[in-house]
Amino acid sequence: MRLAVLALPLLAACAVPPSSPPGPAVPPPDRDSCSAAPLARLIGQDATALERELILRQVRVIRPGDAITEDFRPDRINFDIGPDGTIARIWCG
Q1: Runs of H (alpha helix) within the chain
Q2: What is the pTM for the complete model shown?
Q3: Domain range summary for the chain, segments of one domain joined by +
Q4: Cα 31 to Cα 82: distance, rounded to the nearest angstrom
Q5: Which residues pair with 86 in a beta bridge?
Q6: Edge-to-edge strands of the sheet including 77-81?
Q7: Local structure of 3: helix, strand or coil
Q8: What pLDDT sits at residue 14?
C-alpha cells in the first residue's frame, strides 16, 4: 500500500498535459502582438503552404503530439497543425 502511495506522484508527473483549449483561429485585434491577422488566409490550407511564405519573425509550427515550451514570446507566431495536416490555428506567444 505504501509503495502505491509513493508511486502516484511519479505517475502524475509522467502524464501528458492536456492540449491548449481551442481558441479563435486568429488572435483578436487587441491580442495580435505578432501581427498574425494577415496570415489568416492560411487557415485550412495544408501545412506545406508555410514553405511558400516569407515570415521574417520568430515562428513555431506545432504538430499534434509535439512537446512545446511554455515560454511566452508575444512577437512569435505559432501555427497549430491539425491531425489532418492543415493549419488549424494561428496565435501569438
Answers
A1: 2-14
A2: 0.72
A3: 20-92
A4: 22
A5: 46
A6: 59-62, 77-81, 87-92
A7: helix
A8: 44
Q: Which residue type occupies 77?
A: I
> Running along the chain, 93 residues long, what does each successive block of 10 average in pLDDT?
45 43 74 92 96 92 95 95 97 93
The domain made up of 20-92 is a member of CATH 3.90.1300.10: no
Confidence at residue 17, expressed as pLDDT on a 0 to 100 scale = 39
Length of the chain: 93
* pLDDT of amino acid 31: 85
Give the residue among 93, 91, 76 at the shortest CA–CA distance from 28. 91
Cell 503552404 belongs to: 49
Distance CA 70, CA 73 (A): 9
Rounded Cα distance between 32 and 79, Å, is 14
pLDDT of residue 62: 97
Expressed in angstroms, the distance from the first to the final Cα of the chain is: 44
pLDDT for 23 equals 62
Q: Residue type for 53, please? A: E
Place of cell 481551442: 22
